[in-house]
From TrEMBL:
<protein>
    <recommendedName>
        <fullName>DUF4352 domain-containing protein</fullName>
    </recommendedName>
</protein>
<feature type="signal peptide">
    <location>
        <begin position="1"/>
        <end position="28"/>
    </location>
</feature>
<keyword id="KW-0732">Signal</keyword>
């Protein structure tokens, strides 16, 4: 009996030792195939890691700076300094929806100035104001900021919206543009 147990234990050790020493990798999770799109002529594609604020994930995908004016369907609008346009994808990661406010987002310049979204530019370019961001919902849009002439954008301060653990969402998350 003792000899049988010893042989079984030895067999188990030999079999587990013969796996080639390579750790087993979990199969890759399936992903959606989203078609690639051309970057707009005045824009630079950004390849930054996603950032999270509360229950919202932020992916910055495009940046255009030095825009002297904007043209909408019914108006042309001159910048006081120069417009900066950020292409942003937000995704709801929480268990319930949040009211997402595009106008709360801020741009921080190299000098430390904090610039709010330009409401008139957002309206002229027909970008969203507030919307319900549900679980797993992904929304892509532009943010417009009017910076002083010599100012350079450094960081997007992103606010995802109120959550069960942070009802006021006062902090935000800083996302470097480089």
């Amino acid at each position: 009996m003792r000899r049988s147990l010893t042989l079984v234990a030895l067999s188990v050790l030999l079999l587990t030792g013969c796996s080639g020493g390579q750790p087993q990798q979990a199969p890759a999770k399936p992903v959606y195939d989203l078609p690639a799109r051309e970057v707009r002529p005045d824009e630079t594609a950004l390849h930054l890691p996603a950032a999270v604020n509360g229950e919202t994930e932020f992916s910055l995908i495009g940046l255009a700076t030095g825009l002297p004016s904007l043209t909408g369907s019914h108006a042309e609008f001159e910048a006081k300094g120069h417009f900066v346009r950020l292409r942003l994808v937000v995704t709801g990661k929480g268990v319930s929806g949040i009211l997402f406010d595009t106008r709360r987002q801020q741009l921080v310049t190299e000098s430390g100035a904090v610039i709010g979204v330009d409401n008139q530019a957002m309206t002229i370019k027909r970008q969203p104001d507030k919307f319900e961001l549900g679980r797993g919902v992904r929304v892509e849009f532009d943010l417009y900021f009017d910076l002083p002439k010599e100012a350079k954008p450094l960081v997007l301060r992103a606010f995802g919206g109120p959550t069960l653990t942070d009802m006021k969402n006062l902090t935000g998350t800083d996302i470097k543009l480089t």
